[in-house]
Design goal:
The chain has 13 helices and 16 strands. By secondary structure, the protein is of the alpha/beta class. The protein folds into 2 domains: 340 residues, 3-Layer(aba) Sandwich (Alkaline Phosphatase, subunit A); 110 residues, Arylsulfatase, C-terminal domain (2-Layer Sandwich), CATH 3.30.1120.10. The strands form 4 sheets. An 8-stranded mixed beta sheet has the order 5-4-6-1-7-8-2-9, with helices on both faces. It has a 4-stranded antiparallel beta sheet with strand order 11-14-15-16, with helices on one face. Strand 15 and strand 16 form a beta hairpin. Helix 7 packs across helix 8. 46% of the residues are buried.
């Protein structure tokens, strides 16, 4: 059939209009899909490394530990140089972060009993310690769950028997256990609930594989994945080939333990696996990634200089931690913040990020999201409270107030650049200007009595407001002569 030029022109006009209409349909469809994509709540991946020190990463200046993936994350997110754990050891730190509340609200101050160290050397009877968060507390897991998220905890939980009792849909390897056990880093594991892997499988690798499986299975839903690695907590155990590599590497700046370095290296490789998974699944741009650790590093394993002391101490080395927050499109990569923040700030910040409709009624932290936009947050004082004892485990290097305890009962306040320690046994006060003395080597309480009094008064008011318990009962089994003898014995070893 022959088509006339006139009819051919009409046909072309019709086809042209159809093409335009189809293109518009595709465009509208694309816009709708993009709008739908943009409206989806962001996923959240919270990585909490056990006992990783403030200085134990490449981006923090380490030349011994290789952490290219975490270093890359620091370039894509905001680095908080003055980030603090809310407590100096594992269980209370995790309780504070998961609940957004300080110790007086949940009563978890340490791991196990509060009666730590030799009884004859404790002047006071410590406040009893809770070991489990109460069911009445509204956890981070519950908040995410109630706002439509799939919630999963993979790794060390440590603050109850099962995170599924506190808002998490999925639990892998989480219980009251605080460490993997003597043989726990290699299969067969001692980290229930976790199915055994092939003999020789490494726990950090396995937990990451489990986390990746959860991400893949929930890629079409908003998810909150809490990944608290058991690493790099003792016992120090690493893959042999990685450890051998560090044995050949030149140590430096108080960092020389090849096993520990290998554990950090493997942790970093697995962070890379997680980040690559998010990219491969097209989720990276809509996922908030938070990287931190639960307390300061273990000083006899890895020095935290210039910070004083390490895990268990309320000097800077025990409570300063790495913190990186990546949120594509909302946080400019490579930003560095010098604002003092704490891990209990994460709860209110995440509520803001996901535009939570159901929120916690009470939180002890503050929303950090204004910092993402180059704005400021209200100045506030930071508090720590420790009404119990924590014995020294390495008196030679602990850098504690005395060689018997990493810390004794007391409270701490940071106000601006000033930091005041109060000790309940003897009423001792230590004042440090962190802007000049971040190593807390020079107690200037007597030089600045007005500042000392001001901060001390703030501590008292804060304890009254929060009903923070203070030990006052004398220990009838305390033996001053025995304590003196034990202190002398330990100092002779120095």
């Amino acid at each position: 059939m022959k088509i006339s030029k006139k009819n051919l022109k009409k046909l072309r006009d019709i086809l042209g209009k159809m093409t335009i209409s189809f293109s518009m349909l595709l465009l509208l469809s694309s816009c709708g899909a993009e709008k739908q994509k943009d409206s989806r709540k962001p996923n959240v991946l919270l990585i909490n490394v056990d006992d990783l020190g403030w200085k134990d990463l490449g981006y923090m200046g380490s030349e011994y530990y290789d952490t290219p993936n975490v270093d890359g994350l620091s370039k894509e997110g905001m680095v908080f140089m003055q980030a603090y754990a809310s407590a100096a050891n594992c269980a209370p730190s995790r309780a504070n972060m998961i609940t957004g509340l300080l110790g007086p609200s949940h009563g978890i101050y340490t791991v196990g009993t509060s009666e730590r160290g030799e009884e004859q050397t404790r002047k006071l009877i410590p406040i009893p310690n809770n070991q489990t968060i109460a069911d009445s507390l509204y956890t981070l897991g519950e908040m995410f769950h109630d706002n439509g998220y799939v919630t999963a905890s993979v790794g060390k939980w440590h603050i109850s028997e099962d995170p599924r009792d506190h808002g998490f849909d999925i639990n892998v390897a989480g219980s009251h256990r605080g460490g993997p056990g003597p043989k726990g880093y290699f299969s067969p594991y001692n980290a229930e609930p976790l199915e055994e892997g092939p003999k020789g499988e490494y726990l950090t690798d396995r937990l990451t594989t489990e986390a990746i499986s959860i991400i893949e299975g929930n890629k079409d839903k908003p998810f909150f994945l809490y990944l608290p690695f058991y690493a790099v907590h003792k016992p120090l155990m690493a893959k042999e080939d990685v450890e051998e590599r560090y044995e050949r590497k030149k140590p430096g700046d108080g960092q020389s333990n090849a096993t520990y370095a290998a554990m950090i290296n493997t942790m970093d490789e697995n962070v890379g696996r997680l980040l690559n998974t998010l990219k491969d699944l097209g989720l990276a741009e809509n996922t908030v990634v938070i990287f931190t650790s639960d307390n300061g590093g273990i000083r006899d394993v890895s020095f935290q200089d210039p910070l004083r002391a390490g895990k268990g101490s309320y000097y800077e080395g025990g409570i300063r931690v790495p913190l990186i927050i990546k949120w594509p499109g909302h946080i400019k990569g490579g930003e560095v913040s010098q604002v003092p923040v704490t891990q209990r700030d994460l709860y209110p910040t995440l509520q803001t990020i996901i535009k939570a409709e159901k929120k916690a009624e009470k939180l002890d932290g503050d929303d950090l999201s204004p910092l993402f936009k180059g704005k400021s947050i209200p100045e506030r004082d930071l508090f720590w409270h420790f009404p119990i004892y924590l014995q020294a485990y390495a008196p030679f290097v602990d850098q504690a107030r005395d060689p018997l305890y990493r810390t004794r009962p007391g409270s701490v306040i940071r106000s601006g650049n000033w930091k005041l320690h109060e000790y309940f046994e003897d009423g001792g006060l230590e004042l440090y200007d962190l802007s000049k003395d971040v190593g807390e080597a020079h107690n200037v309480a007597e030089q600045y009595p007005d500042i000392t009094k001001k901060l001390y008064d703030k501590l008292i008011k804060w304890r009254e407001k929060t009903h923070a318990p203070v030990p006052t009962k004398l220990n009838p089994k305390y033996d001053a002569e025995y304590e003196k003898r034990r202190v002398e014995e330990e100092r002779e070893k120095l």
